[in-house]
Specification:
The structure is a single chain. This protein is an alpha+beta fold and about 290 residues long. The chain folds into three domains: about 10-70, 2,3-Dihydroxybiphenyl 1,2-Dioxygenase, domain 1 (Roll); about 75-135, 2,3-Dihydroxybiphenyl 1,2-Dioxygenase, domain 1, CATH 3.10.180; about 180-285, Leucine-rich Repeat Variant (Alpha Horseshoe), CATH 1.25.10. About 35% of the residues lie in helices and about 20% in strands. The protein is built from twelve helices and ten strands. Strands 1-4-3-2 form a four-stranded mixed beta sheet, with helices on one face. A hairpin with a 5-residue loop joins strand 7 and strand 8. Helix 10 (about 245-255) packs parallel to helix 12.
Length: about 290
């Protein structure tokens, strides 16, 4: 293998997360999830650091606390760690006994079951149980049997409608992002119980207006943020998102060059500086002389 084709890195060793309260976070990962503290120390610049060993993995989690850099603020849906569990039912029972609430799920995808809990300070944890039962084939009205996931660029609208009802989350995600998926299927997928499917649907520029309306009211901030960047966003939906309580949704809206100047001018006067900054940049790019 030529040197230029060889990967620069060898393997992942650890990932770092900065927190406000090191002791509280370490207790969560140790006492709730069962990670083991492998070492703790204070760095030369004064950071308190704890390394936690993750069962079944060579990767460690590095937690650090450094007061001089200020408070840590983690926006919703920004960061999560995913861990595999053996049995979701037993996991949920143990979490209930520990008074740890489930914030999302459990969701069945056909090949896995997953649920979310909150870690301290806005970080999230996804717990996943793999399900090894092979999916059943789907049958179209004409009697043709299809393996789930057999979706390509030439898939027919009829096939996409059928597969939009699949129990496999990955299949529904693929259908949600397909340009040939009919409007009625996209509307259904915009109300899918799995937020990852809704997030993919929110990126599809061929969404019907009813789906835009549904997704603009989605409880997940990240989904509304993705929708706000959709190049097919109508002015009516954009005006709905102008009043979104999340500045991160309004910031995403401000990056959308497909919006009329009137919407961007309103965002240019937003109360949040990040939103104003994004709108300023987008307006300047839209009106930059070409060539």
């Amino acid at each position: 293998m030529p040197a230029s084709d060889k990967p620069l890195v060898k393997k992942l060793l650890h990932t770092r997360m900065r927190v406000n309260d090191l002791d509280r976070t370490v207790r969560f990962y140790r006492d709730i999830l069962g990670l083991r503290v492998s070492r703790t120390f204070t760095s030369p610049r004064g950071s308190r650091i704890a390394y936690l060993w993750i069962p079944g993995s060579d990767v460690e989690l590095e937690i650090t606390e450094f007061k001089p850099s200020g408070e840590v603020h983690v926006p919703p849906d920004l960061v999560h760690l995913a861990f595999e569990v053996d049995n979701m039912d037993e996991t949920l029972d143990r979490l209930s006994a520990l008074n740890v609430p489930i914030t999302d799920g459990p969701t069945h995808t056909g090949h896995s079951v997953f649920a979310f809990i909150d870690a301290p300070e806005g970080y999230e944890i996804e717990l996943i149980q793999s399900v090894h039962t092979p999916p059943s084939p789907s049958t179209l009205p004409g009697g043709e049997e299809l393996e789930l996931g057999s979706i390509g660029p030439d898939s027919s609208p009829e096939m996409l409608v059928e597969l939009s009802r699949s129990l496999d989350r990955w299949v529904r995600e693929t259908v949600a992002g397909h340009p040939a998926t009919p409007p009625e299927a996209l509307l259904t997928l915009s109300m899918d119980p799995d937020p990852l499917v809704r997030e993919v649907a929110a990126q599809n520029p061929f969404l019907p207006e009813e789906a835009f309306q549904v997704l603009s009211r989605d409880p997940k901030e990240v989904i509304r943020s993705v929708l706000a960047k959709n190049v097919s966003l109508s002015e009516d939906i954009a005006r709905t998102l102008l009043s979104d309580p999340s500045p991160w949704v309004r910031e995403s809206l401000a990056w959308n060059e497909a919006l009329p100047d009137g919407i961007l001018e309103i965002l240019h006067k937003d109360e949040h500086p990040v939103v104003r900054s994004a709108a300023t940049f987008t307006l300047s790019e839209k009106h930059r002389p070409k060539g």
